[in-house]
Amino acid sequence: MIYVVLGTQWGDEGKAKVIDYFAKDFDYVARFQGGANAGHTVYVNSKKFVFHLIPSGILNKNVNVIIGNGVVIDLEEFLKELQMVSSEVDTKGRIFISNKAHIVMPYHKLMDKAKEMNSGSAIGTTQRGIGPAYVDKVDRLGIRVGDILTSDKNILKEKIAAAYEIKNYILKNFYKIPDLPTVDEITDNLFSLADKIKDFVTDTERVLQSAHQLRKNILFEGAQGSLLDVDFGTYPFVTSSNTISGGAICGSGIGAIDTASIVGITKAYITRVGNGPFPTEQDNETGELIRQKGNEFGATTGRKRKCGWFDLVATRYSIGVNGVTEIFLTKLDVLDGLKKIQVCTGYEITDGNKTYKTDYLPSSIEMYPKIKPIYKEFDGWEEKTFGVKNYLKLPDQARKYIEYLEVQLEKKISYISTGFEREDVIVR
Ligand code: GDP
Ligand code: IMO
Ligand code: MG
Known about the structure:
By secondary structure, the protein is α/β, with parallel strands linked by helices. The protein contains eleven helices and 20 strands.
C-alpha cells in the first residue's frame, strides 16, 4: 500500500499529526521535497515534537524513515533533530538519507535572508535557505550529501568554491554583508559533519524500490501545501519545490506508482503564513479568534498565521492537481463555539469595467486583489467536538458542515481530526 499524504492549502494543515496517526500501519515514511522550512508537530501522550526534516513517522518504532533525493537538507538541523528524537525512541538503523539530496549551505541561508530583507516584495520565506539551495541544484552548482563523503577534501573544496564565488561577490558587494565565511571554513565544517552522518547515507531510491517490490507499506510525507507548489501555487508567493503528489515520484526515485491513496489534508478553515494572496483571509476579530483557538503560530518561525474561511475554489483546484482520492479534515474542533461559519463557494472578479464569476483559481498573481469571495453561511455549534471519536456524536451543525464540503468537493471526507493527540480521529 502506498499513501501520499499532503496538504491541500498553504501548509500547516496538520499533516504530521495525520502521518503519525497512519504510521503504525506503514514500514516506511519518506520525505520527498522541501527542507527545514517545514514545521511538523506531533503530540504523543501530551508530549510535543516538532520535526523539520526527519519524517514524522519516526515516533512509531516499526517505521523506517527516508529523507529522499528531492529534499534539501540542512545537516546541522538534521543532527539537532536526531538528538531530540533519539532521546525518545530508538532510531538506530531506521533513518536513511539520500546521497543525492542537496545540502543547504551557509551561503544559501545568507542569500535567502539578504534577498528577503532587501526586496520590495518579499515572499516572507522561512529564511532556511530553501530557494537558493534549489537554485544551485538546478544550476548544477549544488553540493550533494554524497559529495561530502569523499576522502579527498580538496575535491569538495573545489565544488564549494565554484558554487560560492559568485554568491560571495553578491553578498559582499550588493548586499554589503560583512564577515562572510571563507571557502575553507565552510569546507572544514562540512567535512567534519561527514563522519556524523555517513551511516545514514545510501541510495534511498533502491531502498524504496525493493520495499515496493516486497509489497511493503510506504507513506510519502508532503511538506508545505499544494497552494505553495512552485508550478501550481500562487506564484511567486510559493516555496521552491513541487509539493504536489507528482513530487513524490521524482523526489524519491520509487519509480512509477501503479496505485496510491492520495490523502489530502484539509483544515476545516484555512491559514497562511508569509506573504501572498489569501482571498478568504479574515483580518478581523474572527480571524484572531481562530488563531488563538487553533494556536495558529508557525512551528518553524513562530510567526502569526493568517486565518480565514474554507475556500472551495482553492480546495477543488488542489484536489485536481494532486489527484486527491480522499480527504482528511483536520482541526474541526477549532470552529467550536463560533456563531456563524462561512464557506467560499466562488470568486467574483472585477477586472477593469468587467465583473464576472469564476470557480477556478486564477493563474496570475495580479488577479488576486480583484477577487471578492462569494460566501455561503452556516450556523455554528455550541457543543464541543474536541476529542470526539464517533461521527454520530458530532453536533448536527458540524455534520451538516462536513457533508456540505464533501458534496461540493466531490471527495469523501474519510477522516476527521478533532484534536492534536494521535487518537483524536473520527474514521467514517
Ligand atoms: P503540518 O505542518 O501540516 O504538520 O502542521 P503544523 O504542525 O505546522 O500545524 C498544525 C497544528 O495543529 C499542530 O500544532 C498540531 O498539533 C495541531 N493539530 C493537528 N490536528 C489538530 C486538530 O484536529 N485539532 C487541534 N486543535 N489541533 C490540531
Ligand atoms: P509545513 O510543511 C506553511 C511558506 C513560507 C513562505 C513560502 C516560501 O509545516 O506545512 P520558503 O522558506 O519555503 O522559501 O518560503 O512558503 N512556507 C510554509 N508555510 N507551512 C510550511 O511548511 C511552509 N514552508 C514554507 O512562509 O510564505
Ligand atoms: Mg507546519
